[in-house]
Write a structure and sequence with these properties.
A two-stranded parallel ribbon has the order 1-2. By secondary structure, it is mainly alpha-helical. The model has no long low-confidence stretch (mean pLDDT 89). The chain has 6 helices and 2 strands. Helix 5 crosses helix 6. Helices cover 76% and strands 5% of the residues.
């Protein structure tokens, strides 16, 4: 059993991972989100989706107003009037939920499309920085539990992405 363990350790030491002399990590998500292109997209998306967000906010305010009015007028309403108002609130709330889901879906599709455009730029930036710095291995930051800050090339990748056209 001991000889199997020693053989396994020897195999690990001879593996390309153990032979790597220069290792780095990159946080791809952070690199994309902090790039100039992502910041520009965020501002454009905010403008693009602002009218729908405003519509949702007004619908929320309307529902809140109806609920307050129902609570205030409740004691003087007949059962039928109370049920009608509750039904109106329920319908408006369902409409709000539907519109919210639609907006979230549109935003997610837009975000994914933009991410798809940024992915090749990210990959190119990682490749260029890795080659310039002569790294043998570059891992995703999330794959490592602990990394010395000097091994993290995320900032360099962000700078390179910002330079790429």
């Amino acid at each position: 059993m001991k000889s199997i363990k020693l053989a396994f350790i020897a195999l690990l030491l001879m593996s390309p991972l153990a032979q790597a002399q220069k290792i780095a990590v990159v946080d791809s998500e952070m690199a994309v989100l902090e790039s100039d292109a992502a910041k520009k997209y965020a501002k454009e998306a905010e403008k693009l989706f602002a009218p729908k967000i405003k519509l949702l906010k007004s619908l929320q305010d309307e529902i809140k107003g109806l609920e307050q009015k129902l609570q205030k007028d409740g004691p003087t309403l007949t059962d039928g009037q109370r049920e009608n108002r509750q039904l109106e609130i329920k319908r408006k709330f369902e409409d709000l939920q539907l519109q919210d889901r639609q907006l979230r879906g549109e935003k997610a599709r837009s975000d994914q499309a933009e991410l798809g455009k940024m992915r090749p730029k990210l990959e190119k930036a990682i490749d260029e920085v890795s080659k310039e710095q002569n790294y043998d291995l570059v891992l995703e930051r999330g794959a490592a539990r602990f990394v010395k800050p000097e091994l993290d090339i995320t900032r360099k990748v962000i700078e390179r992405m910002n330079k790429l056209k």
